[in-house]
C-alpha cells in the first residue's frame, strides 16, 4: 500500500515535539517520520503536500483538519493525533466518515489549566494588569493617567474585589460555563479561599448529576453546587469561569446580553477558546463598568488579535497568550500523550485517549 514506504508507515509531525518526546517516535522502526522543520506553526502548503500517503499525523490546535486535508492524505490515513485537549480544529464528522481514529490529550493538562485560571481570576480582580504596567512602563491609564513616580501607597489605591471571603463579606459565588475536568479542578483550588457556592451550566444535553453535586458540596463544605441556566450563573457569580469546549455550539456564549446580567464587581475568566466570548461586547462591558475585570488566556482571532483592539487596551483586562497548559511538565506530558496515541493507533492497539466519534 502507498502509505508503507520502505515497509514503514509514513507519519507527519506538524511540530517538533522536543528531545524528550521525539525519540518515542524516532525509535519506532515501523514509522517513517516527516517532521515540519521550523519552529513555528507548519505551513498549510507543506502539510497538504506531505500528508499524501501518510498513515498518521500529529497536529497542533493551529492546524485545521478538514476534508481538504483528509482527502489529500487519501485512504492510507488511519489516525489524527492532536496535541491538545480541545479538538474543534478537527472536523470529527469528516474523520468518522473516513473511518479515522482521533487522539487528544485530556487529563494531563487539567491541573496546569486550573492553576492558570485561578491566577487570571486573581490578576483580574486585583488590578494585576494596571499594577504591573505602571511599574514597568512608569505609567498606566485607568480613567486617568497614573504615574508610578507620583504614586505612593494609598488607603484605597489599586483596590479590587477580594476572591476570598472575609468576616464582613462571607459569601462567594463561583460560576462555571462548562463543568468538566478543568472546571472541577478549578473549583477544588478555590475551596481554601472560602468560597460558599458553585453554580454551573453545561451542555444542555448532559443531564444534571445531583449525586455528584451533592458529593462535591459535602466534600468541599459548600452551601451549594448546582446546575443552573446560563443566565442565572451570569447573574449570581462573583467570578465566572468560561471552561467549555469551543466550536459552533458555544460561539459567543458570552455576549452583550449575558455580560449585562453580571454583577458590577464580578470577574470573568476565559481559559477555553476565544470564540466563546464576544470580544467587542467584553470590551464594552469593561469600559462601561458592567463588570469589574477580565482574565483571558484566549481571545477571539488569536494569535492575530489587533494590538489596538479595545479589549487589548482595556486596563481591567489581563490577557496572556494561550499559555494555560504551558508548564514544562504538562507540555511534555501532552506531547508524550500525542505520540502514544499515534503509535497505538498505527499498531492497532487501544489508544490512551481517543475521541468518541
Ligand atoms: C488545549 O489543549 O486545547 C489547549 O488550548 C492548549 O493546551
TrEMBL record:
It comes from the Eukaryota. This is Uncharacterized protein. It comes from Leucogyrophana mollusca.
Amino acid at each position: 500500500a502507498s502509505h508503507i514506504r520502505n515497509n514503514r508507515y509514513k507519519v507527519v509531525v506538524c511540530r517538533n515535539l522536543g528531545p524528550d518526546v521525539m525519540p518515542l517516535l524516532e525509535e519506532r522502526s515501523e514509522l517513517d517520520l516527516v517532521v515540519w522543520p521550523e519552529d513555528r506553526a507548519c505551513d498549510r502548503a507543506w502539510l497538504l503536500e506531505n500528508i499524501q500517503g501518510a498513515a498518521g499525523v500529529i497536529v497542533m490546535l493551529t492546524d485545521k483538519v478538514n476534508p481538504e486535508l483528509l482527502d489529500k492524505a487519501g485512504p492510507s490515513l488511519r489516525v489524527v493525533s492532536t496535541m491538545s485537549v480541545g479538538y474543534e480544529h478537527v472536523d470529527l464528522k469528516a474523520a468518522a466518515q473516513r473511518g479515522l481514529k482521533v487522539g487528544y490529550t485530556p487529563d494531563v493538562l487539567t491541573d496546569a489549566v486550573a492553576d492558570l485560571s485561578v491566577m487570571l481570576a486573581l490578576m483580574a480582580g486585583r488590578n494585576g494588569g494596571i499594577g504591573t504596567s505602571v511599574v514597568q512602563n512608569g505609567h498606566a491609564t485607568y480613567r486617568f493617567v497614573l504615574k508610578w513616580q507620583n504614586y505612593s501607597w494609598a488607603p484605597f489605591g489599586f483596590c479590587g474585589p477580594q476572591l476570598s471571603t472575609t468576616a464582613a463579606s462571607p459569601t462567594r459565588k463561583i460560576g462555571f460555563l462548562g463543568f468538566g475536568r478543568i472546571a472541577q479542578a478549578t473549583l477544588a483550588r478555590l475551596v481554601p479561599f472560602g468560597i460558599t457556592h458553585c453554580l454551573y451550566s453545561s451542555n444542555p444535553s448532559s443531564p444534571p448529576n445531583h449525586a455528584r453535586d451533592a458529593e462535591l458540596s459535602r466534600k468541599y463544605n459548600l452551601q451549594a453546587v448546582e446546575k443552573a441556566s446560563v443566565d442565572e450563573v451570569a447573574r449570581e457569580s462573583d467570578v465566572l469561569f468560561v471552561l467549555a469546549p469551543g466550536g459552533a455550539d458555544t460561539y459567543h456564549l458570552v455576549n452583550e446580553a449575558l455580560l449585562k446580567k453580571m454583577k458590577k464587581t464580578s470577574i470573568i475568566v476565559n481559559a477555553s477558546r476565544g470564540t466563546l466570548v464576544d470580544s467587542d461586547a467584553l470590551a464594552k462591558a469593561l469600559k462601561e463598568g458592567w463588570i469589574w475585570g477580565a482574565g483571558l488566556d484566549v481571545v477571539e482571532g488569536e494569535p492575530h488579535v489587533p494590538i489596538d483592539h479595545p479589549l487589548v487596551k482595556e486596563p481591567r483586562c489581563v490577557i496572556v497568550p494561550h499559555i494555560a497548559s504551558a508548564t514544562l511538565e504538562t507540555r511534555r506530558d501532552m506531547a508524550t500523550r500525542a505520540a502514544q496515541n499515534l503509535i497505538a493507533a498505527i499498531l492497532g492497539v487501544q489508544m490512551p485517549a481517543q475521541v468518541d466519534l
